[in-house]
From TrEMBL:
Family named by the database record: Belongs to the ABITRAM family.
Name of the protein: Protein Abitram
Subcellular location: Cell projection, Dendrite; Cell projection, Growth cone; Cell projection, Lamellipodium; Nucleus speckle
InterPro entries xref list: Abitram, GCV_H/Fam206, Single_hybrid_motif
Organism lineage: Eukaryota, Metazoa, Chordata, Craniata, Vertebrata
Gene: ABITRAM
Role, per record: Actin-binding protein that regulates actin polymerization, filopodia dynamics and increases the branching of proximal dendrites of developing neurons.
Alphabetized GO MF terms: actin filament binding; actin monomer binding
GO BP: dendrite morphogenesis; regulation of actin filament polymerization; regulation of filopodium assembly
GO cellular component assignments: dendrite; filopodium tip; growth cone; lamellipodium; nuclear speck
Organism for this UniProt entry: Prolemur simus
Length: 181
């Protein structure tokens, strides 16, 4: 009695893949492999996350703590947004720091905004449970939500990489490290 192969179930895209476009910023501020991912929704809201190749997401790293305290006078936790025009939101430039991640091995990583706009919210859940940043970086482990100016919403992707371009850079990095070893 021969068994028929079961038809493969169609792959259902995740919520992130369905509603967001992934953009990447490689080597942020000139630091190798410190890549960030920007998830852009059709309503122009951008969710800032870590790209899969970021050192924090590599095996063996343990996050000790995360801080939204950027300087003595600036804390992203003090961001209070209200009203239709998002009054009170902190304005961010592309290189504005969002948070600092401290690892148990002594490494420290500063996560930048990568897009210009108003800071809508920061993810306070990663303060209490830093491991979700590593376990679910594109969903529950996001870093912040930024709303670009309407006039700039089309131009924010200039200087950012598409998923395909980013994957090519990662492959080149892997080939370069295997060629040197």
């Amino acid at each position: 009695m021969a068994t028929e192969p079961e038809a493969a179930e169609p792959v259902v895209p995740s919520l992130v893949d369905r509603y967001f476009t992934r953009w990447y910023k490689a080597d942020v501020k000139g630091r190798p492999c410190e890549d960030h991912c920007i998830l852009q929704h059709s309503n122009r809201i951008c969710v800032i996350t870590l790209a899969g190749s970021h050192p924090v997401l590599q095996s063996g790293k343990t996050i000790k703590s995360i801080s939204y305290q950027i300087s003595t006078n600036c804390s992203r936790l003090q961001n209070k947004v209200s009203g239709k025009f998002k009054r009170g939101a902190q304005f961010l430039t592309e290189l504005a720091p969002l948070c600092k991640i401290y690892c148990s091995d002594g490494e420290e990583y500063t996560i930048s905004s990568c897009v210009r706009g108003r800071l809508m919210e920061v993810n306070e859940n990663i303060l209490h449970k830093p491991s979700i940043l590593q376990e679910k970086p594109s969903t529950e482990g996001y870093i912040a939500v930024v709303l670009p100016k309407f006039e700039e919403s089309k131009s924010i992707t200039e200087g950012l990489l598409t998923q395909k371009e980013y994957e090519e850079i990662v492959v080149k990095r892997i080939n370069a490290t295997t060629a040197t070893s």
